[in-house]
Amino acid sequence: MTKRKRLVLALAVLVLFLGWMGWGNFTLETTRYDLYLEGLPHSFEGLRVLQISDLHNAVYGKENARLMEAIRQTAPDLILFTGDMVDSRNTRPDLALDLAEQAAAVAPCYYVPGNHEGRLDEDEYAAFEKGLMDRGVIPLHNQGLPYTRGEESIWIMGVEDPRFGEREKGETETETLRRRIDQALDGGEGLFTLLLSHRPEQISLYGEEKLGLVFSGHAHGGQFRLPLVGGLAAPDQGLLPQYDAGVFRQKSTTMVVSRGVGNSIIPVRFNNQPQLVLAVLHTQS
Description:
By secondary structure, the chain is of the alpha/beta class. It has helices spanning 3-26, 65-73, 93-104, 115-118, 122-134, 173-185, 203-208; strands at residues 29-37, 48-52, 78-81, 109-111, 137-139, 143-149, 152-158, 192-196, 213-216, 225-226, 230-231, 233-234, 238-239, 246-250, 253-257, 275-283.
């Protein structure tokens, strides 16, 4: 092969690689999980729960048209925002609020703050949350609410990221989350629990608390994913994170981890499409 042909081949490979990278960073993937859950009331058979995590100012088409089309196609019964709707390094609450308004017109929406919301100053965050509520999104601050279908109910609960708000003196992040989970469980005794919590690395705690179903994000799928290996690094998990994406089980608890929709510090993903998660719930009978 001549030098010229080798150069042309190398350029062609480079163009293909860059095209694949661009496609993998700017096209959304919707992943469906069918979850068979012990203790789920029969009235909730087939409930379709859409998770949107780690938006970080991401926009897909004018006024997020491509993202909204993907959301509508899942025909969700519930939509869960599991933190980091804004990015603290370049806060654009208008982008998140516009998406929230459109999503709330599709299905009831619940939200918990992530670590990036925790970096906003108090007034900035208060204005953002008021904007969410004005658009029909229900924020959950270490609290739970009954969600009824037919004649049966489950307990939808949410906890703030441990870096959001005040921690008691000397508390570890795990201790903070444990206290907040116990607070959010108040009133939901005897009901199947569905938790929104930004942090997947706390799965042992979720299992200890005997939670039914948990939705988390934060890990961004490990940012760079390798075949047979998975993600390379994730916040609060370090290298080769165990809980980067997918479905995990701890005791009687099932946890779903989203790869997220947007990026933060590193603006590029590798082999790691932005992701919506559709969980279809089933009873064990």
